[in-house]
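Figure 2 data, in text form.
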Amino acid sequence: MRIGEVAARAGVNAQTLRYYERRGILRKPDRRASGYREYGPETVRVVRFVKRAQELGFTLEEIEDLLRLRGDRRASCADVRSRTKAKLRDIEGRIESLRAMAGALETLLKTCTRDASSRECPILECLEGENDDNDDEAKD
């Protein structure tokens, strides 16, 4: 298959395939005499694997590790499971952090009781920080 066909089947663009090649996620394909890349059907499976893993929050570095495990006959399901557990913990931590941010924003919104025509904004004042002058003095 040529690059356009692989891209279409995998649901990505040709630049993505070239990028994956440069990163080493995809093997360098054979070239036709014309210079066109010639991919095998496994390429589509690998790209789909990458895209599904990205949808689940895995980074390309983590996906490269998963692909190594996929191709390693000595690797076990336990190896993949431990990486998946680590990713889940990471995502749960990010969710907790996002909830804290949302709570802080809700609190800021509740403090903004001035009428809409007022030029002064308590949210902006809060974001500027109350102790900026003191922070500068502490650094001296």
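Caption note: The helical segments are 3-10, 14-23, 41-55, 60-71, 77-111, 122-128, 132-139.
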